[in-house]
Amino acid sequence: xxxxxxxxxxxxxxxxxxxxxxxxxxxxxxxxxxxxxxxxxxxxxxxxxxxxxxxxxxxxxxxxxxxxxxxxxxxxxxxxxxxxxxxxxxxxxxxxxxxxxxxxxxxxxxxxxxxxxxxxxxxxxxxxxxxxxxxxxxxxxxxxxxxxxxxxxxxxxxxxxxxxxxxxxxxxxxxxxxxxxxxxxxxxxxxxxxxxxxxxxxxxxxxxxxxxxxxxxxxxxxxxxxxxxxxxxxxxxxxxxxxxxxxxxxxxxxxxxxxxxxxxxxxxxxxxxxxxxxxxxxxxxxxxxxxxx
Length: 293
Known about the structure:
Elements: H1 2-21, H2 24-31, H3 34-41, H4 44-53, H5 60-82, H6 85-131, H7 136-144, H8 151-165, H9 168-178, H10 182-197, H11 202-252, H12 257-289
Helix pairs in contact: 4-6, 5-6, 6-7, 6-10, 6-11, 6-12, 7-8, 8-9, 9-10, 10-11, 11-12
């Protein structure tokens, strides 16, 4: 215990010297380092714009209230198992700092799921309109009225580009750059062919219809399994945290408590850090890899 206090006092002393020694230019260089830029990117200030781009809303009041509740709970849990104020403050601070990152990653995952759902709706509806022998521009207009944002907005932009420039293929290519799905590419091949030739390739229409139905079934099954796995993951995470309380009770009833208390506290602290890192990597993986190709 005494050694840890001396360590933190020494770190605080070094920090104080650095503050007084560094001038404004030195601080600016420090703030412009790669590490500081990355920390700024994942802070509330750095993420709020990206959250708004995804259509989310995360006001400062909501963040502060969630940070106060979750930061306090995590700090109290850490203190209940370690009886160490510094460790508890570190855990609470990390919770508060990374809370916007978890909000953003969860929002990004949900946005991907919505994008895939709207994409499949767009493709399947367009195929039905192709079979009704509607012209390509009318198909795009009718589909834009059925889907939701952000695909609705992008389809409206595509229609406006076609009406303004009369460049049908270029407008569809611009849409494909944003929605890089094989179903969208195949559908646009059909629409381009219909626009140029005035007819439709029945074989390609049947193939795309069957492929879209199969994709919809597969993605629904995948999402259900993913949701079940997510529930199991968080259940195991809660059990991990409860296990820390059980370990403390068992350890303090041990005859070796006076010899290893500080080591035990530090191990519990590392245990929390590892669980937090696991949670962050899990959410990060879901937000990056949970997408239909």
